[in-house]
Amino acid sequence: MGAKTVLLCEDDPVLREVLRRSLAREGYDVEVHRPEESLSEAIRRGPRRLGAIVADLRFFERDIKGHIDEVAAGTAVVITTPFCTAHAIHGEHEIPQGVHPLPRPFKIPDLLAILEARSSDSGVSP
């Protein structure tokens, strides 16, 4: 597990399946968020060491930093939303360290590039 494990939080079933298959094809172990649970519950349920969380902004019930504090240091958090730029996410003044905004619509290679860069930073290949 570890750097290869991704918690996927996406409510659109078609996009969720495309992302799940794409990540699995690239060698990632994908834990799919259960729609009936909160992001906090999914983080606690997931493996002890997540390599990344890929989530739509709406899954963050409270401030993003509050969720970041729940995961281990070094876990990449990719937030997909149409409400972001490289420097800010709607409702947040700044992007917390470890958070990577990915504006929608996005291409799968863009997501993979973020995850691969994080794996390279940690010295673990996906």
Major sheet characteristics: 5 strands, parallel
Average pLDDT score: 77
Overall, the morphology is globular
**Class based on secondary structure composition and strand pairing:** alpha/beta
Number of strands: 5
- The portion of residues forming beta strands comes to 15-25%
What is the CA-CA span between the terminal residues? 10 Å
What's the tally of helices?
4
Low-confidence stretches: none
User: Rg, please?
Assistant: 13 Å
Q: What order do the helices and strands follow?
A: EHEHEHEEH
- The residue fraction in helices comes out at 25-40%
In words, what does this structure look like?
Strands 2-1-3-4-5 form a 5-stranded parallel sheet, sandwiched between helices. The longest helix has 15 residues, at 108-122. It has helices spanning 13-25, 39-45, 64-68, 108-122, and strands spanning 2-9, 29-32, 50-56, 76-81, 99-103. Helix 1 (13-25) links the parallel strand 1 (2-9) and strand 2. The chain is an alpha/beta fold. The mean pLDDT is 77. 32% of the residues lie in helices and 24% in strands.
Task: Give descriptors for this structure.
24% strand; 126 residues; 5 strands; alpha/beta
What's the short story on this structure?
The protein has 126 residues and is of the alpha/beta class. The chain contains four helices and five strands. 30% of the residues are buried.
